[in-house]
Design goal:
Number of helices of chain A: 23
CATH architecture of the largest domain in chain B: 2-Layer Sandwich
Oligomer: heterodimer
Number of strands of chain A: 20
Largest sheet of chain B: 5 strands, antiparallel
Strand order of the largest sheet of chain A: 3-2-4-5-7-6
Number of helices of chain B: 4
Strand content of chain B: 35-45%
Distance between the termini of chain A: 70 Å
Helix content of chain A: 25-40%
CATH topology of the largest domain in chain A: Rossmann fold
Structural class of chain A: alpha/beta
Number of strands of chain B: 9
Radius of gyration of chain A: 24 Å
Distance between the termini of chain B: 28 Å
Structural class of chain B: alpha+beta
Strand content of chain A: 15-25%
Chain lengths: 559, 164
């Protein structure tokens, strides 16, 4: 055991967790830790706002599969993290957030920059703790990484009062850690797997709904194997995009409010629906009473998802990879029925969709931009999205071939997430192109992180589908509120090309699909961040769309 | 109103845990009817008993939400047929009127209650029983004049060899 300060112990504990990159903004209540980081071999990425730092950590985690770490000071620094924390947690992204806090003697006194961040964040994260003295820091850091990265992953916040950072104590660094109330290793129950296999083997019209849990548990190989074994089409949620490669014959795309024609119909028509690592968000199910006729088998690592939104016939608690593996082993011993009728139905629906697509009008349309972008980007490139129309165009029309290459704020739908998340992803994977598919509204919310991208040498590409309008809100107002547009028109400010240039990034405004191609090629090669500002028609809608509160088959495909 | 269910669970006995547990109930939209807490023999742990409005499906999900909390060590919904449930109430009655006083003493006696304090105008009684028994005592005491009331909330143990 060695005597050291809490701040030194903090840095040592981070090193023991293998932390290489920290995203953050310093401040008064976290300076002792900054001082200890001065000598540490840990990259510090200075965000321009703590929300950006939290999103960067989140993007880093989603791209790498590891834990993302962010750091902020007390008070406003901590509250600025809140949106980032909630965004990461609802999408089960493993992020550890550290906040400075006023000295313990002043807690509760409404001291300068004091905020009760434990209370503020309690309902938007997996776990949080406030350290009370220096000697608790090694244990708290260990606990934070352990809880964030195991079981259903999520966000852990550790609040660090200043005197705990400066206090000097004998420090003990635990190798392992245990909580009486936390046992994340979940082997699925063999009897439940037997029953799941039996149900699936008897199914005539099986379908798989792959959620973010498939990606989180690295179960994409098993998913594909099971789908092929069953001849079951695979629909994904937004978070599950990438769990099965686009273009695979059984891949039917996303199901839900902006689900594909075939995914929404097949989910409704199936007789057995195997949901893997999905929480049945209302954006996925549509009107929940009309979601599906199927009996549902629900695999989830977090049993609190069972019965929350949709009642399943069979619940399998466990890690998706282990559960799928167990089902595959059992299915090998069971004879399967032919699926010709079911596959014919799939083809029929696909054909109908192709007809819809051919009817698309003239001009540079977002779907064409997505397809062009896909053609230009290497397969391993990472795409993040902002939220709204741009997100749904990307989800529908940008093909993805591997997990962790399409990152989006699913649960919280946080505008402004995609850009800082792209910066975080680029920090994790500097060798691959990273592109944020943005709208002008979303990008405006966190554009100040251009400074970080430029200063830190993280050359991401931002593609703004620029319609000068908060497009998805405008779409709802157009379709469901008689075109009574309210509060959605953004006007002509800013000029994103000149904005990019002001930050020292590259700005381009392509006027055609050819110029767009040229801009993307340039962005891929560029050593600084590139903003590609593509003007699009403000009247453009994202289709297909299921109106809010309707069943999945009530699909609108035109205005 | 959904039926009332009683859940017992063991939590880490640390500052902030009661807040987190009750915050979860609030966050998920469960209405707490009563809650009682106290440490176990191992004082690093505490036992909570919560009575909550929840139908079958909501109750099942609530149990899993509790199990999912790092601070919660064990959870069990209690089967009312195999559980003893008790609650205590302290009741202050206005007994300045001799008739009222006589009636109050008779009532407390008939509910096996205790008189904890008595002066010229008031008595403080302790009533212990199932929440239903306490309700019926209060109903009968109301005409006498309840000045102040403090209920502990239900606490419960399973019968026989059953154990949380």
């Amino acid at each position: 055991m060695a005597e050291m300060s809490g701040a030194e112990a903090f840095v040592k504990a981070l090193k023991r967790e293998g932390v290489e990159t920290l995203f953050g903004v310093p401040g008064g209540a976290i300076i002792p830790i900054c001082d200890a980081l001065y000598d540490a071999d840990i990259r510090f990425v200075l965000a321009r706002h703590e929300q950006g730092a939290a999103h960067m950590a989140d993007g880093y985690a989603r791209a790498s599969g590891g834990v993302g770490v962010c750091l902020a000071t007390s008070g406003p620094g901590a509250t600025n993290l809140v949106t980032g924390i909630a965004t990461a947690n609802i999408d089960s992204s493993p992020v550890v957030a550290f906040t400075g806090q006023v000295p313990t003697s002043m807690i509760g006194a409404d001291a300068f920059q004091e905020v009760d961040i434990i209370g503020v964040t309690a309902s938007i994260m997996k776990y949080n703790i406030q350290v009370r003295r220096a000697g608790e820091i090694p244990h708290a850091v260990k606990a934070a990484f352990y809880i964030a990265s195991t079981g259903r992953r999520g966000v852990v916040l550790v609040d660090l009062p200043k005197d705990a950072q400066t206090g000097v104590e004998e420090m003990e660094f635990p190798e392992h850690i245990e909580f009486k109330g936390y046992s994340p290793n979940v082997e699925p129950n063999p009897r439940e797997l037997d029953r799941a296999a039996t149900l699936l083997a008897k199914a005539e019209k099986p379908i798989i709904l792959a959620g973010g849990g498939v990606v989180a548990s690295d179960a994409c190989g098993e998913l594909l194997k099971l789908a092929e074994l069953l001849m079951a089409p695979v629909a994904t949620t937004l978070m599950g995009k990438g769990a099965i490669p686009s273009g695979h014959p059984l891949h039917i795309g996303m199901c839900g409010m902006h689900g594909t024609w075939e995914a929404n119909h097949l989910v409704s028509e199936a007789d057995i629906l195997l949901a893997v690592g999905s929480r049945f968000s209302d954006r996925t199910t549509g009107r929940v009473e009309e979601f599906t006729e199927a009996r549902i088998i629900h695999i989830d690592i977090d049993p609190s998802e069972f019965d929350k939104n949709v009642e399943a016939s069979l619940r399998v608690r466990g890690d998706a990879k282990l559960a799928l593996r167990g089902i595959i082993e059992r299915l090998r011993q069971i004879s399967r029925r032919g699926r010709e009728g079911w596959m014919r139905r799939l083809e029929e629906l696909r054909e109908q969709r192709r007809i819809e697509e051919e009817e698309r009008g003239e001009g540079v349309k977002p779907p064409d931009l997505m397809k062009t972008l896909r053609r230009l980007l290497p397969k391993e490139s990472i795409v993040t999205t902002e939220v709204g129309q741009c997100q749904m165009w990307a989800a529908l029309h940008f093909d993805v071939y591997a997990p962790r290459t399409f990152l989006s704020s699913g649960g919280l739908g946080t505008m402004g997430w995609g850009f800082p998340a792209a910066i975080g992803a680029k920090a994790a994977k500097p060798q691959v192109p990273v592109v944020d598919i943005a709208g002008d509204g979303s990008f405006g919310m966190t554009e100040n992180n251009l400074a970080t991208a430029v200063e830190e040498g993280l050359p991401v590409i931002v593609i703004i589908l620029n319609n000068r309008v908060l497009g998805m809100v405008a779409q709802w107002q157009r379709l469901f509120y008689g075109r009574r547009y309210f509060g959605v028109h953004l006007g002509s400010s800013p000029d994103f090309v000149r904005l990019a240039e002001a930050y020292g990034a590259v700005g381009v405004r392509p006027g055609s699909l050819e110029e767009f191609e040229e801009a993307v090629r340039m962005g891929i090669e560029s050593e600084v961040a590139t903003v590609i500002d593509v003007p699009i028609d403000p009247e453009e809608n994202v289709f297909p769309m299921v109106p809010p509160g309707r069943g999945l088959r009530e699909i609108l495909v035109e205005d | 109103m959904a039926p009332l269910s009683t859940i017992a669970f063991i939590v880490e006995n640390r500052p902030g845990v009661l807040f987190k547990v009750s915050n979860m109930f609030r966050r998920r939209g469960y209405n707490i009817e009563s809650i009682s807490v106290g440490p176990l023999m191992d004082r690093s742990l505490a036992r909570m008993t919560v009575t909550v409005e929840a139908d079958r499906r909501a109750l099942r999900n609530l149990i899993e939400q509790l199990r999912g909390m790092v601070e919660v060590v064990r959870v069990k919904p209690l089967d009312p047929r195999r559980t003893v449930v008790r609650e205590m109430a302290l009741v202050k009655l206005n007994t300045s009127d001799p008739m009222a006083r006589e009636e109050a003493l008779r009532l407390v006696n008939s509910h096996h209650g205790l008189i904890l304090d008595i002066d010229e105008d008031y008595i403080v009684a302790e009533i212990t029983g199932s929440p239903g028994e306490i309700d019926s005592f209060l109903q009968e005491a109301e005409p006498i004049g309840i000045v102040e009331l403090s209920r502990t909330g239900a606490t419960a143990l399973e019968k026989g060899e059953l154990k949380l």
